[in-house]
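hey can u check if this looks right to u? its 349 residues, i copy pasted from the old doc so theres a chance i mangled smth
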Amino acid sequence: MALFTPAWKKDPISARKAVETMTSQAQLARVVRETYVTKEWRSVKLAAVSRLTDQAALADIAKTDIDRDVRAAALVKLSDQRILADLAKDTGFSDNAYSLLVGNLTDQALLAEVVRSATNFTARQQAIGKLTDQRLLAEYASSDKDVFVRLAAAKRLTDHALAQRIFADLASNEHVGPDAIEYLTDQVLLADIARTSGGLRRRAAVSALTDEGQLTDILLSVLCKDGLSSFDKEARADALEKVDSPQLLVRIVEQGVGVMRKDAIEKLTDCELLSAIANSNDAEQYECTWHETHYDERYKYAESDEDYYRTITMTHTIDLRQTARDRLTALQTDSQPGASTACLSKMSA
């Protein structure tokens, strides 16, 4: 039976004072292991961890201590590359913990080991993000069983041709396809994906496309139909935003439908053409729908804030000829670049 109780076991205040003067790594590790697991004693355990430098002891605490904050404090202090790699390959840590572990790894051989052997996706992806060995990156990008790891490795390749082949191979994958597509630069391939895919993949392909001719073809072939999904509507807006060629805008006005034509008209600066549209027999109209939220005084005493407001949906039919007239007015008023000084005379013609 012990003749006396150590100061670090008496009470939290005495224990913290005792820990502040401790130098023995074994004793500090014992404090962490044997201190009570209560809120009052947590500061004692954290104080002991803050004075620990023994990497093996810190690794054991990071793996086994019941207190999450204590485990995290131990993780932050780890620097031994071998221990960091072994823990990164271990199981049972949170994603944040794996990020901390791999974040402190700098040894390229050990990073490659983590990519090769770890079971946690976060650990593998973080390790890939720190690898610089192009041979290893090419190997993982080409043949790893995890498509997310392949994509992460391909992003770090300096061999542009190889990276593009990997992105193209991953473009059809349901999990990483949209992300891979954003890194493609082959305009013909991107245009083909935009024409034949749907949803996020089409949206990503249009986002990566820069060829105005291809964008116009896509607008007029697959994005001018009724009943477009929300992704396709975003793709249409993105595609039209990137078309600046007057000739292509005219083509969209002539061959497009509804809102697409209206948006193209609003980008035109050719007053001759705008005047022709404004004075034409083209009677196509489009409906513009939007939602507005208004404070409703009648419900100011409602129990929920949500009940204070009501949403109104409004639909307005607009004539494309009027859109052309409004564009002429805007060009004359704002003196926009490319606008003809004859705009006013065209309006009054």
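Residues 37 and 66 are 8 Å apart (CA to CA).
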